[in-house]
Amino acid sequence: YMCKNCSRQFRVTTGTFMYGIHHRDKMLEYIKCMSAGMTLRECARNVGICLQTSFFWRHRILCALQSFEDKVNFFGVVELEELLMNYSEKGKKKRDKKELKKLKKKKQTKVAVLAATDRSGNILFKKLEDKRVQAEHVSEFLKSRISKDSVVCGSDKKAFKTVNAEHIKHKEITSKKKMKGGIYSVSTVHKKIIAFVSWIYYKFRGVATKYLTNYIMWFVVRGKYLADKIIEDTGRLLNLAASDRRAWGRYSDLMSKTYLIYNI
After folding, report:
1. Tally of structural domains, the chain
2. Which of 105, 129, 200, 251 is most solvent-facing, going by the fewest CB within 10 Å?
3. What is the pTM of this model?
4. Interatomic CA distance for residues 46 and 21, integer angstroms
5. Alpha-carbon dihedral 227, 233, 236, 241, rounded to 10 degrees
6. What's 137's domain CATH number?
């Protein structure tokens, strides 16, 4: 195709996760392997591609799923909690001896993740460029995501106690072991956090912080759209990923990033 305004040429796949892929005929089988929960090596072996290509294809697809972050909204009682994960540079190579010594002595850096869910099953985790969740993070996260009659229920962390914004009309503070008023608790979001952490560390043996947002959205999509049925999930995952026209740009930006801790 050619744009009438700027005369630039483009294809059907331009901007999507399929842009620039040589073996497009193998992508459907690869998504099927992903839906079945196969590892990168198993996907590569079954599809007939190399391990590196398997890794790149996975993150092309996951970058496309990031577009659904803006479509997650919460209703009723909204539970919030802070999740602290270890900063990771898993997969980084060419470390010298001095760097390894420094890493062993250095205290493990934490990366803050804001977890939210409601009683309807809507869920979203947000990786933050900070060591802890701050009140402004909570306010910005909930902006335009919650309904007017929603009740925000947070743990007794400082960020949730001090948050104050126009779009938060009703706030309750409780702990994970107690229920307030018979209905207010953070037990549901804690169950989601446990499931997410188990999935990250037992399924993948941990992931690099650089790619954490991708895995967060995979977890969210698995819980909301997929039903543990390989054929149906393959079609859903393909449709969800193919609908994003900015996936290629997001993927290119991600792969060009180095392992740097900015504000953390």
Report:
1. 2
2. 105
3. 0.89
4. 18
5. 120
6. 3.30.420.10
